Fold this protein.
Amino acid sequence: MHKFAVFCLSVFSFAAGVQISCGRKVVPASPLETFKTYVKALKQKDLTTMKLLLSKESLAMIEREAKAQGLTVDDVVKRETLFSENQKTVEFRNETIDGQKAVIEVKNQFGTWETVPFVFEDGQWKIDKKSYLESLTNEIEQQNRSELDRIINQGKEP
């Protein structure tokens, strides 16, 4: 009878442990942890992990670009990283989370800080390259407008 009691207690303890572990809420990786995983994947040339860390819209954008250029999605992912593969260190700062969106500032190969956006989808933080590229495009357009205004205004007298 003693062995049976020990067996029952073991089964009960195991079942209780399973119930407790199943009831735990899984906390998703933060945007910063997601970014660190992306950096590690890039350095290891792990394109599968890199793609898993990109938002759905970013992957769709990459697929369209690959098709238009006659390349594979992997070719585009490999080419369009958030920083130079040759960078020895990647510095980051100022993780900010606002609802379903987040940003981290990352120092690029030229020593300036860039903002990398994230979006929370499917229960985890994903890098939002689509928003990143849109932001860069807007910044370039603004610089071009400012330069054009400067050139136009050079010819005018005050």
About this structure: The first strand starts at residue 92 and ends at 98. Strands lie at 92-98, 101-107, 113-121, 124-127. Residues 1-21 have pLDDT under 50 and may be disordered. The radius of gyration is 24 Å.
